[in-house]
């Protein structure tokens, strides 16, 4: 049985202070010119805005020309990422080969079994021919007195039948060799399939080990820490108070495989931009690892909604 392919982990990062924000589209790297354009990103933002407002019943962000920018940037893959991608391609190639073999084996086995059945019938027919000829020879041997002419006819008949049996035997042996050749080819396919599955398992284990030390960041809400110091006197004593505030001023997206994935990345980072932290709940938009269900269909889970209620 084939194992599931492990893909690189996709993570997001940082927090902000919770507040309504204005956003706009910034730079779109030339690398993505054939993948996405300004209007398509604007449509994505409208879909995200509708999802947030319809599920939260509150305004989270608006599009504005004086808003904080969303940049779509191209970041070249690291050496480790290239190695992971190379292994993923190998895994897909081996998986396809295994599936092709698996799909072909039942038909091949059916044909072999059919031909084995024909061989069995051929063998039975040949044995009956041999048995009939032996019975005939036994009967002839019981009768000792034959004329020369009768003896010649008997001899000719036996020779003729022996020739038929020899031909049938030769045909049967040839057909047996053909079937055996097909059986050998079938077994080679099975052995190749098992070898491919072992290779697949080995590569998958290597990929899992590589993934443990690799985290691919696809998006980030970026900002600065504002530190405010205040000095005052309380009960005759001088008191210093320091306030640290995270101010998010832009979103950067570093890569996406599809428009649906881009939508999930931007939605996650907009939530960070307005101050929503990570949660560890499976399937949640604000899980630090990109969830497949959010790529399939962007939607806030109950945990996400509670996260917004508590932090916005």
Chain-wise SSE layout:
Blueprint: E1 9-11, E2 21-28, H1 38-56, E3 61-63, E4 68-72, H2 79-142, H3 148-212, E5 215-217, E6 219-234, E7 237-253, H4 259-273, H5 292-296, H6 302-311
Parallel strand pairs: 1-5, 2-3, 2-4, 4-7
Antiparallel strand pairs: 6-7
Number of helices: 6
Shape: rod-shaped
Radius of gyration over alpha carbons? 39 Å
Order of helices and strands: EEHEEHHEEEHHH
Give the strand line-up of the largest sheet. 3-2-4-7-6
Q: Main beta sheet: strand number and arrangement? A: 5 strands, mixed
**What is the first-to-last residue Cα distance?**
47 Å
Q: How many beta-strand runs? A: 7
Unreliably modeled segments:
1-17
Arithmetic mean of pLDDT: 86
Structural class: alpha/beta
- Assess the beta-strand content as a share of residues: 15-25%
- DSSP helix fraction: 55-70%
């Amino acid at each position: 049985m084939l194992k599931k392919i492990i893909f690189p982990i996709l993570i997001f990062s940082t927090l902000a202070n919770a507040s309504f924000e204005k956003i706009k589209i910034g730079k779109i790297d030339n690398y993505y010119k054939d993948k996405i354009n300004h209007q398509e990103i604007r449509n994505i933002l409208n879909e995200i805005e509708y999802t947030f407002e319809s599920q939260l019943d509150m305004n989270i962000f608006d599009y504005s020309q004086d808003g904080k920018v969303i940049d779509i940037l191209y970041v070249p893959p690291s050496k480790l990422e290239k190695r992971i991608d190379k292994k993923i391609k190998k895994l897909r190639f081996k998986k396809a080969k295994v599936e092709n073999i698996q799909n072909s084996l039942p038909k091949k086995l059916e044909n072999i079994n059919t031909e084995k059945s024909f061989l069995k019938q051929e063998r039975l027919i040949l044995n009956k021919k041999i048995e009939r000829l032996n019975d005939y020879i036994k009967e002839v041997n019981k009768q000792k007195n034959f004329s020369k002419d009768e003896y010649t006819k008997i001899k000719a008949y036996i020779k003729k039948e022996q020739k038929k049996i020899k031909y049938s035997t030769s045909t049967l042996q040839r057909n047996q060799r053909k079937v055996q050749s097909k059986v050998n080819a079938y077994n080679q396919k099975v052995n190749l399939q098992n070898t491919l599955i072992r290779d697949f398992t080995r590569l998958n284990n290597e990929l899992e080990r590589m993934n443990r030390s690799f985290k691919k960041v696809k998006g980030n809400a970026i900002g600065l820490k504002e530190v405010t110091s205040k000095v005052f006197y309380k009960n005759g004593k001088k008191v210093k108070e320091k306030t640290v505030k995270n101010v998010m001023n832009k979103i950067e997206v570093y890569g996406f495989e599809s428009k649906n994935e881009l939508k999930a990345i931007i939605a996650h980072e907009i939530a960070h931009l307005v101050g929503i932290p990570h949660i560890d709940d499976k399937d949640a938009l604000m899980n630090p690892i990109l969830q497949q269900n959010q790529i399939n269909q962007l939607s806030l889970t109950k945990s996400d909604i509670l996260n917004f209620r508590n932090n916005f």
